[in-house]
Amino acid sequence: MFELIVQMQLHTVKGYIQSIYIAEYAQGVMLLDGCCRADVGTVLRFVRDELKRPVTDLRLVMVTHMHPDHAGGAHRLRQLTGCVVATGYTERSWYQGVDGWLMHLSDIFLGLWMANRMGRPLKNIWYERTLRPDLVVADGDNLPQFPEWSVVATPGHTNGDISLWHQPSHRIYVADLIIKVRDDYRTPWPIFYPNRYRDSVAKVEQMQPAAVLLAHGGEIATEPHHRCFAVETPKVPKTHWRAIKLKFQNSLSRSEHAEHK
């Protein structure tokens, strides 16, 4: 087992609005998530200049879910390197239909808003709202070419979120399952399926990982019942449409209150 652990080097690279995790092996390189479109050059430069390897050594790009900082660079990376793009099984495309088109636009604007909050320059993060994966994986599957890693289904944030479990080191990449802001651990935005989300957090906690890799917050060492697993999960969905509806209702209520004064 020790031999398996030392074969891999896990690199963390600062992305446009999230942490990028790159697993390096003698046989090739794997990107744990599809990152932003604006991160494509960052990933390729790291492979070429820091790892001193040809970019075609990028063999596998995982996509944990369809948000801009997790899927946005996948197609372009495949085009430039010939890598395999893999993602988890979903019952339907996340951004399908008119509602999906509007949500895709709003998620891109949210990504740019986050970049602005982080002091990042404005960059193009536009990407296709439908992923064309080479491979669809399911809960418990080992990853092709990198069998030390396996898939853990952790839906709730969206309909098909996956996490990636590194079996030898007992570390897990959870993407947006948990967000770290300064010293606080929070739930992501949005949460479409609160019950599934709650089950997903409990599922990861029960695995007792030695460390959790966050897309927003870096790597944190954990132990059973670590406070990162105590995030307060909502009882109802936290979505774009509910937020807009709530704001509208609050505005209406304030207007009615003002009229009665």
General description of the model:
The chain is of the alpha/beta class. Helices cover 32% and strands 25% of the residues. The protein contains 7 helices and 14 strands. It has helices at residues 2-7, 40-50, 68-71, 74-81, 97-117, 194-206, 240-259, and strands spanning 9-14, 19-25, 28-31, 58-63, 84-88, 135-137, 142-143, 146-153, 162-166, 171-175, 179-181, 184-186, 211-214, 218-221. The strands form 3 sheets. Strands 1-2-3-4-5-6 form a 6-stranded mixed β-sheet. A hairpin with a 4-residue loop joins strand 9 (162-166) and strand 10 (171-175). The protein is globular and about 50 Å long. It starts with a helix and ends with a helix.
Q: Would you kindly provide a brief summary of this structure?
A:
The chain has helices at 2-7, 40-50, 68-71, 74-81, 97-117, 194-206, 240-259, and strands at residues 9-14, 19-25, 28-31, 58-63, 84-88, 135-137, 142-143, 146-153, 162-166, 171-175, 179-181, 184-186, 211-214, 218-221.
